[in-house]
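thoughts on these tokens:
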Amino acid sequence: MDVDELLSFLTPETRPDVKGHATDYLLGLSGNREGLRHLLTNPDLLVAVSSLTSDPSNAIAKECYLILINASADEKLHQVLVNRANVLPGLLKNLQDPQFMFTDQICTILSNLTRHRPTCNTVSKAMVQQEVSVAQLVDMFCTEGFNKMASLHYLGPLLSNLSQLPDHRAVMLDPHRCVIKRLLPFLSYEASATRRGGVIATIRNCCLDHACHDWMLGDDADVLPFLLLPLAGPEELSEEENEGLPVDLQYLPDDKAREQDPDIRKLLLETLLLLTATKPGRQTLKKNNVYPIIRELHRWEKDANVSAACENLVQVLIGDEPEEGMENLLEVEVPEEVEEKLKQADQKEQEENKKELEETGENRKSQQIQDGWIRS
């Protein structure tokens, strides 16, 4: 279809049936790489689509939001969306409306846009201009029934993406705001892996600020039981082992189930490993008898990548303390040649794990949650 002709159909004044055919065509176009390249070379199409998200027809508006979801999944189109189409003011305004019909679609678009650091910064600046804070997003996320037409699950990945930025982490880690504490119960939220994954990725990013580890592991935030519970199973521990655990982890029932998603289990283990970066953190995990939980998880675990994450954590829990001056593992400078060798070893291990999974027929398709974002 000729671009100029198509644009003539994507106007508020066009008959609804003609507009519907045009948006349906663009939705199909946005669903493949070649179509996305076409949108990149013809950005006015996305400008027109963005303007029709406020169309009186709910069906047309929904299709336009779906087109924007597909477009925002391609990093090459991010600048077109935030600059040429100027989607952010409208998205952020409608996101806060508890009666808006397409809030879940908006959450997904913003989650896609914030996956990469440059556009994440752009979204963050727009939030300041629109007076939307991370604390407000967390309030929406934690308020049951905030929007009866939306689940708001994809606010989880959006929060994790925003937590890549130090300013937003500072808000989340402010002891007076209790933002992190409000998110912790969702680590065991059975209804949505997207929500659970977004929350653990957020907490993992916050653990990069090692100065806050004491507060996070202290009585005020007390994150450790929340991180351990999804990793614990029904295995019977000795009385001595049980007594050394946090109260919420003691004498678990026979039907206690672990987190089902291996990517989330891996994130939980990586978060615990980050908390062992400082000497007080290591001492806290050892004092709370974390080792038996990870030991039983490792015995049960079938995913090679999660097993490797278990082994990394166990090495710290049962290993000797680093020598003086190297107690903070996040501040240790690794020589470039050593870092390169470690990267090569890690790549080799990943390739071996992948080969093992393929040979055993256990390879699977799943959402990959890493680096603060969810990759579809």
